Amino acid sequence: MLNDFLVRAGLAGLGVSLAAGALGPFVVWRRMAYFGDAMAHAAILGVALSLGFEISLFVGVLFSALLVAALFLALTRRNQSADSALGVIAHSALAFGLVAVAMSAGPRVNVEAYLFGDILTVSRADLTLIWSVAAVVAAWLLWRWQALVTWVLSPDLAETSGYNTKLEELGLIMALALVVAVGIKAVGALLITALLIIPAASARPHVKTPEAMIALSLGFGALAAVAGLKGALWLDTPAGPSIVCAAAFAFAASMLVAKVRGR
Fold it and tell me: Rounded distance, CA 98 to CA 92, Å?
């Protein structure tokens, strides 16, 4: 069955959407959308690193995402505002990455495949990596759940409860970097942040507990992956953007339902 590229694409989209959907609520709660966007923009720099040093795409993108996190922490500690620091890092990394990719040796590189994804070319190895990352994210969330929720609700309460808030933030950053690194093959650097934000935003008006928001965000993410791929097949449109379009339609429907229910 896995020899069928459509099945591999479906499983890849589902794996990325579930991993992103699980982390999305924390990104929304902590207002880290721009941070995730900066990591995603830096993924193109990671592509250039992987081409230049002939290393795995996953390793190159993961390194660039972690580099963004380190630069952000360094700049904010030097009294730079968070939004300014992220703006400088995100756009600089994207620009340098595009230039470096264009200058890479060998056959001309299809930059659009990295910007918008090429999920139909996912291999068995890619699929294994995607679902391995999804499993790691799930295991980490289960392990650190109480500490993460307490930190989200109140960093001060988390500190007084004995949790290391810097360690929890670092864990979330690492998890986001992993998801960005595997998501670039499925939906691309410019769209992976959408899968972190849109399913969580769609779930938010309909839940009252963190557990329920995670569960509903996972549902919206899975729906976007399946519906987006089906839409791409029927309409002959790019798969990655189609997945995000499906997520956007789900968000619009969610907001409409919330308005009807008076929420």
Answer: 10
